[in-house]
From TrEMBL:
Residue ranges annotated for the Transposase IS66 central domain, each copy included: 158-437
The protein, known as: Putative IS66 family transposase
Composition-biased stretches (Low complexity): 41-52
Positions of the UniProt region annotated as Disordered: 35-83
Highest taxon, organism lineage: Bacteria
Organism of this sequence: Octadecabacter arcticus 238
DUF6444 domain mapped to chain residues: 14-81
Annotated Pfam families: DDE_Tnp_IS66, DUF6444
Length: 471
């Protein structure tokens, strides 16, 4: 009897040890899967930037698939090239002295036609110095002295004018050239030998103060409703992580610096906002009428789940979203403002069928091992999380189908934020929060003017009232 009891205790110990080893093995397998998932992610199947791909950069492949169009210019596209003008600034005549065949002398009376060739070039750049002379009068009646008034902006004994100041701001803020190199550029081009980096900084700060009213006007226009694109990206200010928040549409752009990523523009009201499902947009922007989620983000996530997790439903969902977008674009091309009810119902039916298939797939999977000390809801696989999101936010995912003014992607915001990444690559960090906001304010105006087809360099020489009148 004692031997049986001992064997039972030994068996129980062995079973407990086996259970512990199985749990440890499951945990290690899950960690291994997480690590493999991280290693397999790149710029094509996640939100990682292309610069992080390194030597393993994937072959470029559009997430939207083939468009069916031939490469190159499309039918009806109007090409453009450098053309001769009927009013050249200068004309240089070239004459021959002897016949090219018999070497007989030629005269002006023998000219029967002229072959014209034109060369477009810039004049030799140089600074122009304008001297302002204010007449000083001595009154013949009371003998008092009166000096004429100088024009606005002419304040110093010697100073640079508004056009070269605008050029410096343009180079620094629009072309992202650091202050020292701006000085070198203007010195080489225009002979501005006495220009220093501190002057460029002062001009940039002064421009931001001047454009304050224009920035407020832009923000007011963006708060009028319609479709607005929202996004944010990280940057360094005084060595600390900050965030550049953008609000934009086809005509206006507004940038704002914040120390918190979650400081979304909760003051916006009405209309539809397009974003990438950052939770703060849902939590703090109850004043808007509707949300729309970026289809490009969904396609990247679906590609990762298809390639890394090998889940069959992901490919079907990608094909459906792409085909739905193509149907919408085709309808817009025909001048329609909505899809036929039967087409929309068919897309919705397929959408829900794919979700049902995907959720059923995950219900058949073994549950994930719970990490030691983990709290909260039970962990789910990435594909399961995406399925739940696509189900719970179905109307926002498919907003581009029900409202043709809403695009399929949030690319507008992505394009408007791209310049900040380039700025960080070139110059690194901002020293102060004020300097970062100065940059953001001027870029708000520059981006907006560019969308209106305006000339940036000319705009920087105008008054705020003149700029607002053009927007």
């Amino acid at each position: 009897m004692d031997q049986v009891t001992a064997l039972e205790q030994l068996l129980a110990t062995a079973l407990r040890r086996i259970a512990e080893l199985e749990a440890a093995l499951a945990s290690m397998a899950q960690k291994n899967a997480d690590l493999r998932r991280q290693l397999a992610k790149n710029s094509s199947n996640s939100s990682k930037p292309p610069s992080s791909d390194g030597l393993k950069k994937p072959v470029p492949r559009s997430l939207r698939g083939k468009s069916g169009k031939k490469s190159g210019g499309q039918v009806g596209h109007r090409g453009d090239t450098l053309r001769q003008t009927a009013t050249p600034d200068f004309v240089e005549r070239h004459e021959a002295e002897a016949c090219g065949t018999c070497q007989h002398g030629l005269t002006a009376g023998m000219i029967k036609a002229v072959e014209r060739r034109q060369v477009y070039d810039i004049p030799v750049p140089r600074l122009e110095v304008t001297e302002h002379q204010a007449a000083i009068y001595c009154c013949g009646h009371c003998r008092a002295t009166t000096t004429a008034t100088f024009p606005d902006g002419v304040n110093a004994h010697v100073q640079y004018g508004k056009r070269i100041r605008a050029a410096a701001v343009y180079c620094n803020v629009q072309q992202l050239i650091p202050e020292d190199r701006v000085c070198q550029l203007l010195r080489d081009l225009f002979g501005a030998t006495s220009l220093c980096a501190a002057s460029v900084t002062n001009w940039v700060n002064g421009t931001a103060r001047t454009l304050g009213g224009v920035v407020e006007h832009i923000l007011a226009r963006l708060n009028e409703g319609g479709v607005r694109h929202l996004d944010e990206t990280g940057l360094r200010v005084d060595g600390k992580l900050h965030w550049l928040h953008s609000i934009s549409d086809l005509a206006f752009t507004h940038y704002r610096i914040s120390a918190k990523r979650g400081a979304v523009p909760s003051f916006l009201t009405g209309g539809t906002i397009v974003h990438d499902h950052w939770k703060s947009y849902y939590a703090h922007m109850s004043g808007v009428d509707a949300h729309a989620l970026c289809g490009a983000h969904h396609l990247r996530e679906l590609k990762a789940i298809e390639e890394i997790e090998k889940e069959p439903w992901a490919c079907a969902m990608s094909v459906l979203l792409n085909s739905a977008n193509q149907l919408k674009c085709a309808a817009q091309g025909r001048g329609e403002t909505e899809l036929p009810t039967s087409v929309h119902h068919d897309i919705l039916t397929k959408y829900m069928a794919i979700l049902t298939e995907g959720l059923a797939f995950h219900e058949r999977q073994d549950p994930l091992a719970r990490r030691t000390g983990a709290r909260g809801r039970k962990a789910r696989r990435p594909g399961h999380n995406l399925l739940v999101r696509l189900r719970d936010y179905r109307d926002d995912v498919l907003r581009f189908l029900t409202d043709f003014t809403v695009p399929f992607t949030n690319n507008q915001a992505e394009r408007d934020l791209r310049m900040m990444k380039l700025r960080m690559k070139i110059s690194g960090t901002f020293r102060t929060l004020e300097g970062a906001q100065v940059f953001a304010d001027i870029r708000s105006v520059i981006s907006t003017v560019r969308k209106h087809g305006g000339n940036i360099l000319e705009t920087l020489t105008l008054s705020p009232q003149q700029i607002i009148a053009r927007l």
